[in-house]
Design a protein that fits this description.
alpha/beta; Rossmann fold; globular; 8 helices; 36% helix; six-stranded mixed beta sheet
Amino acid sequence: MVLDSTNIAAAAERLAGQDPRDVLAFAFREFAPDVVVSFSGAEDVVLVDMAVALGGVCRVVSLDTGRLHPETYQFLEQVRSHYGVPIEVHFPQPAAVESLVAAKGLFSFYQDGHTECCGIRKVEPLARALRPARAWITGQRKDQSPNTRAAVPVVQLDPTFGAPDRPLVKFNPLSHWTSAQVWAYIRERGIPFNPLHARGFVSIGCEPCTRPVNPSQHEREGRWWWEDETKKECGLHIGNVP
């Protein structure tokens, strides 16, 4: 099936509510081997587990911003070893990082927002990683952010990294799952998880931009807490922001 602007909405409706493994199987069937599974080093490890169990032919891609928690680096290696799959780690362009740090220091995002830093450390490296792909699979869920992700469909044309002459199909197999369902799957399967989760970190990103939350807070309150609540996307999913 060719998914394009004429039938993507119908595909999203058909796949909505299906088990994430069925969505992944569809993605692999239609697009393998040109499929990327993005792995952030957090609870989206369930996607790696599902992909391996299905025998999906894909690339597992992670971004090393240079600012991750030590626990996240260790977890990436644990996942690589546990599943016996290569994890492509993509890095920012050194010259771009050096230029930003030279001009603004290491923590400019506290003053002028995270967009510039994330653009250099995350968006540009992912654009390079996705360039050969026809589809990518993300761990986005509707319950992750009521402001930016409540309407995330199970499949869509990617508005950020795709182009008219090179469309990119974006699958969000976990979109209708809750955090409780994700963690039930992790516990039932005995899947390894980032130890930061046990210390109150629900949403995990770069070390300077992530902090634990208490039980009364939404998980997204632990990310870029100094910024506007309605704009808490790093740029990888900027199409979610109205």
